[in-house]
Amino acid sequence: MITAAASTKSDDDTRSRAARLVDEAFVFNTTEAPASFVDGKHIMNFTGLAPLHASMVADWRRQGLNAVLVPQGMLDPANMCPVADPINHAMKVFGRWNTFVAEHAGDMQLLTTPASFELAQASGRIGLLVGTHNAGEIFRTVDDVDFFYNEVGLRHGLLTCFGQNRLGTSADEGDGRDGGLTRFGRTIVERMNAVGMAVDVSHCGLKTRRETFDASSKPVLITHGNVAAICPSSRNNSDEMLQALAAAGGVVGIMFWRPMVRLEDPVTVEHVLDHFDHVCQLIGPRHVGLGLETPMVGFDACENSFGPARQVSYLKDVRSMDIPELCGHERVRTLVAGLIRRGYRDEDIIGILGGNFVRVFKEIFTPGK
């Protein structure tokens, strides 16, 4: 029989071990939806044009994050359609983020080369990657890949986001309308491989996703997407898709976003852990990481939360996109404590926290590989 005192000591040991692992690891959230606290309001910065505030950096540090990827949407969040002038929008977004990093050079640095990850770890600065949620809107020609790589510092491109573009089809279109990776999309993937830019298929339709694995000579990422066998969302990944990802050397980032964790309530950290278990048992712990997407304060707390009604769960008859115990500054340590309770080894947890994505980004960023 386990006494209350023994149970409390075990809980304390788990929390202590979780805190130690977060401190030791290079914690990399590969889908950060940043939220600034401005004028008494949390502003969710999906479009990249909301105010950037130093409070974001403080919140990242309190969570234990060492690096974040912010895949900005070149979209109008009111109706999920492309903005009228995506190139101009993109230049404003990337310029603002590059300026923000320069103004906080003591706390932040850009991640643009394999060596930049070691530099961030050694210096204690938070590494930042600014990507795009919809590369099809800004890559009008193949040479645009080079321009954004060389002149802007872009190192990540999610091929599609909503609907269809010249690269392929998004998951929200449904299988019957997914024409796969287009001929132009293949040339873009090849150029992204050549320059050292990460190819991300998180929002792509199943055919587009699968054909991108085949077309790419470097690992392809699913920075934020869960397991379809547990939660059959169009955005989530079948076992076959996860196996194809692993065969191509890629990594999938598990999300905290409630609608992609479980389709009915309640939804808890245990259901998120089920997704980690499934991926690790299917393709191994080297192919899974963090792609949380949910802002630290949660989508529901933000001024401009959004989401298609068909994907939103309900909590006490109130629309919710969040799992309360996975919001706040302790959310990463809460996740790690859950992984510990389920028997994960320290080395596997450190890989999940960031080591796996760092390994693959280094490979992608290396010229000639």
Topology order in helix (H) and strand (E) letters: HEEEHEEEHEHEHEHEHHEHEEEHH
Q: Which CATH class? A: Alpha Beta
Helical proportion, percent range: 25-40%
- The figure for the number of domains is 1
- The share of residues in extended strands comes to 5-15%
Helix- and strand-based class? alpha/beta
Largest sheet: 4 strands, parallel
Poorly predicted parts: 307-311
Q: Work out the radius of gyration.
A: 19 Å
| Strands side by side in the biggest sheet | 1-4-8-7
**Strand segment tally:** 14
Name the overall outline: globular
Give keywords:
alpha/beta; TIM Barrel; four-stranded parallel sheet
How does this model look, in words?
It is built from 11 helices and 14 strands. β2 (35-38) and β3 (41-44) form a beta hairpin. Residues 307-311 have low confidence and may be disordered. With 369 residues, the chain is of the alpha/beta class.
Sequence-ordered SSE layout with sheet pairings:
Blueprint lengths: L3 H21 L3 E2 L5 E4 L2 E4 L10 H9 L3 E6 L2 E2 L4 E2 L3 H18 L4 E3 L3 H10 L2 E7 L9 H11 L3 E3 L24 H13 L2 E3 L5 H10 L23 H9 L4 E3 L14 H15 L4 E3 L22 E3 L2 E3 L10 H11 L4 H20 L4
Parallel strand pairs: 1-4, 4-8, 7-8, 9-10, 11-12
Antiparallel strand pairs: 2-3, 5-6, 13-14
Helix pairs in contact: 1-10, 5-6, 9-10
Summarize the structure.
By secondary structure, the protein is of the alpha/beta class.
